[in-house]
Amino acid sequence: MAQTLSLEDLKAQVTAGDVDTVLVCLVDMQGRLMGKRFHAGHFVAGAWRETHCCNYLLATDLEMATPDGYAATSWESGYGDYVMKPDLDTLRPVPWLEATVMVLCDVLDHHTHEEVPHSPRAILKRQVARLSAMGFDAMIATELEFFLFEKSFDEIRKEGFRDLAPISGYNEDYHILQTTKEEHVMRPIRNHLWNAGLPVENTKGEAEAGQEELNIKYAPAMDTAAYHTIAKHAVKEIAWQHGHAATFLPKWHHDRVGSSSHVHMSLWRDGAPAFKDANDKLGMSVLMKHYMAGLLKYAPDYTFFMAPYINSYKRFMKGTFAPTRIIWSVDNRTAGFRLCGEGTNAVRVECRIPGSDMNPYLAIAGMLAAGLAGIEEKLTLQPPTKGDVYQGESGMIPGNLRDAREALLGSDMLRSAMGDDVVDHYARTAEVEIEEFERIVTDWEVARGFERA
Hints:
The protein is of the alpha+beta class. It is 35% helix and 19% strand. The strands form 2 sheets. Strands 7, 8, 9, 10, 11, 12, 13, 14, 15 and 16 form a 10-stranded mixed β-sheet that branches.
């Protein structure tokens, strides 16, 4: 596996003619890579120190529109600049693009050179710093699901996103024969990401036609968020290179299974698992129980960060392996939170609520903030639930984006952990999504009522 590059490594590669392009990227609110392509010669000559971008990049919707209502930037303030400061610890090769490397940036205020507080990287950094001050490191892993389609992005868009055909014709969960047919896409994904320094473990077929899962080894929180973001970007580009489309939309069809991104979490201290207690029946330390109790108590508060769009909530359906209730269970895939690895050093909690559309920086930050609150408040963890969790009606996950936004706005915990400005900024993001959806007449409405209404 290739490692990240040093600036000196890059200079040598540029001199040798092996690299000519540097992708200088920030992570936007949607978890996408935005930025510039630098000629590598100019980058190593001095642009590695900083560059600039328009500050609207952290106040747009998926369509890159510029809605009003943000305190941080607006038409009235003239849409000024942010500083993009490359974090040279994230410099890495991009093997699926010729002679190209990538670096992620911190986003700074143009005037003060302080980090922009609603930047996704800054939000996660703040929670990691809080953990560090308590002597803990968060080890995180994400499971990333997506669909591959027969046609390309351009073909599908030109056809109005109709008659979508997945790359396979049947459920391919753990299916070796069907996934062999997809190796022309999936093998380059695994190998290119490995050579970019991402500790890829495996890919597998998931529980629907054309559905894939990518697993990357657990790592410190900031690294995992970067791995997730880069992998998601790479999957789209590599699929495109092979004439296919890949989507991370959680629910692309009402009759199809949705795509999730389960998050596994544990805390460590001085290289030892702080969640483990060999004397506990399930191997759970008191610290872990407090942490999990915080995750559960405050789950509505940070649901928006796990499910940020209208479509996100179409995934939460009974009998689909997507959770509907905020409860925990032992090795039970119907619960919102699952205890994994009980009795071992790998004891951890898996949050099954996030969809494949989550921004990992925001979702992980929200979980860490909730877990920290559980530790600080010494919350008591209720006993695990057994059986089919779908049968209950209590403790439901917010059922739509409007409810998740209200929970975010009213969260004293997140306001304390992240700041009022951050909470209000992302609440406005949810509001923009709702406003845009409510403006649109859907195909469902037309077909249902055109003749019969």
